[in-house]
Amino acid sequence: MTSQSQPPPLVRTAGEADAGEIAAVLGRAFDDDPVWQWILPDEASRVRRLTGVFGILLRQVHLRHEGSEAAGRGPDVEAAALWDPPGRWRVPFGAQAAQAVPLVRALGRRVPAALRALGEIEKHHPPEPHWYLAVLGTDPPAQGNGLGGALLRSRLDRCDAEGVPAYLESSKERNVPYYERFGFRVTRELAMPGRGCPPVWLMWRDPDGG
C-alpha cells in the first residue's frame, strides 16, 4: 500500500475564535523552550501555565493587530505565528494593566523572574520600523511538516514586497540556523538576568533576506 502524501499547509489570519486553540498549541510547543523552562521550572504545571500566558498575550496584545496567522494541514490549528506590525510591538500601558492579574494567576511566584527576562529583551528591541515575530510555534506532533516555514514565508513574502524588515528573538540556539535559512541574521547573543537563565539570540532580517 502506498502512503498518501501530506496535504500542503493552510495558512490563514488568526482571529479571536482561534485564541484558545492557538494558546493550547503554543503551550505545548514551548514546553521544551530553555528560557520558559527556567521561568517555569515545574514540569507538571508548565504547559498549563504557558497556555494561560499565551491566551492572555493573544487576547490582550497580538490578535488586535490582525497580523497573526494560524496554520494546519486541515481545519485544526497546528501552528501559529504571532506578528506585530511596524510601530506596534510595544505593549500599551492599558494592555499591561489588563494583563497584570491574569499573568499573576498564570505565572504564580515566577512573575518577577518572567518580568525581568521580558524586560531585558524589550530593552534591546530595535527602534527601526519592522514586523516583529513575537512567537512562532508548532504543536510537537505536527513538527517537521513545513508549517513553521509556511507561516514564515506568508509574512516575509509581504515584508519583501513592501520593503519592510523583520525581527525576532530566538530562545533556542538550535533554531538559529533555521531562521538564518529565511534570511535572518544574529545581531546579538543576549545574556539574560537571573542565575542560570539561558541566553536569547536577537535576529534581524532586511527585505529580500539581504
TrEMBL record:
GO terms for molecular function: acyltransferase activity, transferring groups other than amino-acyl groups. It comes from the Bacteria. Residues 45-208 form the N-acetyltransferase domain. The keyword Transferase applies. InterPro entries: Acyl_CoA_acyltransferase, GNAT_dom, Trichothecene_AcTrans. Keywords: Transferase. PROSITE patterns: GNAT. This is GCN5-like N-acetyltransferase.
